[in-house]
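Data deposition worksheet. Section B asks for the primary sequence of the deposited chain exactly as it was used as input, without tags or linkers unless they were present during the calculation. Section C holds the resulting structure in token form. Section D is free text for depositor observations; keep each observation to a single sentence. Incomplete worksheets are returned to the depositor.
Section A, Depositor: J.P.
Section B:
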Amino acid sequence: MHTTLLLLALAGIFYASLAAPAKALEPRVTAQCGQYQSQTAGPYTLATNGWGWSYGTGSQCSQVDSISGATIAWSTTWQWANVSSGYGQYNVKSFTNLQAAMTSKPLNQYTSMLTNWAWYYTGNNYIANVAYDTFLGTSSNSSPLYEVMVWIGYFGAIYPLSDTGYPPTPVATPTIGNTPFNLIVGTNGNMKVYSFVAQNYLTTNYNGDLLPFYKYLEMNYGLPSSLYMQSIQAGTEVFHGTNMKLTTTAYNIAVK
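Section C:
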């Protein structure tokens, strides 16, 4: 979440049953507007994570809209203007994200990471992305050695961290599941960053398995299968925009 750069200069089916009617979504609307506020709903934690607020002027609020079983709906509203000079105008203001409770274990012990994310963005003059952000290390609580991102939406001149300059040159163009991606590789201190950026920049109803992304990196880039999956977050990195709202109408993930 700290590794994205912006270079503006470079440019139910359902079955009606009399005995067991379907359970309606439970309303859970509690807005959080603090810089580092969070709230839990079922197996999920929604975190505002405004680590870059000092780089701009604006505000942001987030909330869980409803939850039913393992499917959650959530949203974040925001508006940010860049500071007039310095690096702040190129920096992320926040990474509001949803994280599911999961058992941290080595990659080679997982069998699937099935997920669905239905979302849409509204607003004006905005630069942001919509992405999964994951971290891996030698143990469940060690400093992460690898960050793997999966971008399923992006708006404006926004690029992942890249070792090849900006705009970045993809090192590969894999198709994972049914979605073609550009793979960008970058470095953040001691951490290697792999970013899979959907070639269709508006994949607003993503259905897939995240595990094949790691299998691809294992086979082609030597990612150790002994690494522990430390966290899987799903959220939006925001730069600037007016009257913005990201609405997630349905999100779920099942890590096994």
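Section D:
Residues 5-25 have pLDDT under 50 and may be disordered.
The chain is about 5% helix and 55% strand.
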